[in-house]
Amino acid sequence: MSDGRRSKTSDAEAFERCIRVGGLVLFGADTVYGLACDPNDRFAVERLYLLKRRTLDKPSAVMFFSVEHAFEAMPEIGDRTRAAMARLMPGGVTVLVPNPAGRFALACGADLGTIGLRVPVVPALAGVRVPVLQSSANRAGGADPRSLDEVPPLLRAAVDLVIDVGELPGTPSTVVDLRRYEADGEWHVVREGAVGERELTEALHWQYHFDAGSYAEQIRADLPAYDSLQNELAGASGSGARRILELGTGTGETARRLLARHADAVLIGIDENEQMLAVASEVLPEAQVSLRAGRIEDPLPEGPFDLVATALCVHHLDGAAKADLFGRVRDVLAPGGLFVMGDVVVPVDPALATTPLTPGYDRPSPLADQLRWLAEAGFEPRVAWEHGDLAVVAARRN
Questions:
Q1: Buried-exposed string 248-277: b where 16+ CB fall within 10 A, e elsewhere
Q2: pLDDT digits (tens, 9 = 90+) for 244-274
Q3: Which CATH architecture has domain 215-397?
Q4: Mean pLDDT for the chain?
Q5: Which of 311, 325, 300 is nearest to 393 (CA)?
Q6: 135 to 158, 316, 324: CA distances (angstroms)
Q7: Which of 56, 112, 153, 160 is the most exposed place for a label (fewest CB within 10 A)?
Q8: Residue 305 pLDDT greater than 90, yes or no
Q9: How many C-alpha atoms does 156 have within 13 Å on its Cβ side?
Q10: 1 has a pLDDT exceeding 50
């Protein structure tokens, strides 16, 4: 048992040694506490299932401690699915993928053609090279334990090694079905959990469907007023800014217009879609622009900036996250600096809501709410342009 004095390396060594000799380990992952054993050792697997009172026809995930080890063990996984897994893992996700070779049969339950794979973030077990069959440390149907104290005493007593990593979040991994992803990009959530739908959509839907050659045509088909919104946003930004921060740079449409109005400016652009940033890097002047992969929920680059701008990005956040972002934008603006936002809003008249939205990924808010949040964050906001369910807001820092 880990007593808090053993190093992380020794925890990893003890874990691997116990698995290799057919033992059972009780350990903390990155979500809940789980049980682990050698997925190819029938006796160990039957022992784990017996402790959980789980029938052998029920599947369990096979856990690896690096994405590379998962790919090595499952060579049949296609390139698109591998890319999707690499975007999601390590993390609180279990993916269901095809298993045409019937690998790790004891973990597959009644369906040998499907396998669940998991790569957690467990610093204490970094460097573990063996895969494990993993299941939550509870009786079948019981509550998921976030600490050792919540693991049933009989389970704690019956295992061969316990690794205590302290209290965990307690929300199990999100289970995502990727069995059709390779063929047509189809995916769906089987069990909600630690990773939310927005993060999944960004990693799976937009990364799969983004096509640099057709994106410009596609966005204008979805938003006939796209160019009007972009031009109105650029016009509302004024002129003479020297340092610009753009949130959600995408393919560089907004940045290109901003630099045309602010010819002497340098611009830092942030977007979580690296494919889009690659397109932007081809069309924007390298001497004036620094592009960075990142999320707008993360800490913003250090200011002060004269201008912060964003187009068709903030509507992905819920209300609380929008209000938080507005406060962080104010903090990186110079006194008197300007925040310009062009985005989808919830119109007063529902008939004006014509922009196609992806449930769980797009979360527009009423314009009145956003004006209030901006004022509460320390801005003087005004509506510069409004068209249907699109609006441009210019907000001056007090």
A1: bbbbbbbbbbbbeebeebbbbbbbbbeebb
A2: 999 999 999 999 999 999 999 999 999 988 8
A3: 3-Layer(aba) Sandwich (3.40)
A4: 93
A5: 311
A6: 15, 33, 37
A7: 153
A8: yes
A9: 14
A10: no
Comparing 10-19, 109-118, 211-220, 364-373, the range with the smallest average pLDDT is 211-220
For the chain, give every residue range classified as CATH 3.90.870.10: 8-209
pLDDT of residue 4 exceeding 60, the answer is: no
Q: Which amino acid, 104?
A: F
CATH number of 8-209: 3.90.870.10
Structure tokens at 165: 């990593």
Indicate the burial class of 326 (C-beta count within 10 angstroms; 0-12, 13-18, 19 or more): buried
Residue pointed to by tokens 């699915």: 81
Tell me the C-alpha distance between 201 and 195, whole Å.
11
In angstroms, rounded to a whole number, what is the distance separating the alpha carbons of residues 344 and 366? 9
DSSP letter (8 states) at residue 201: I
- What is the per-residue pLDDT across 367-377, written as a single tens digit (0 to 9) for each? 999 999 999 99
Q: What angle do CA 288, 326, 245 make, to 5 degrees?
A: 0
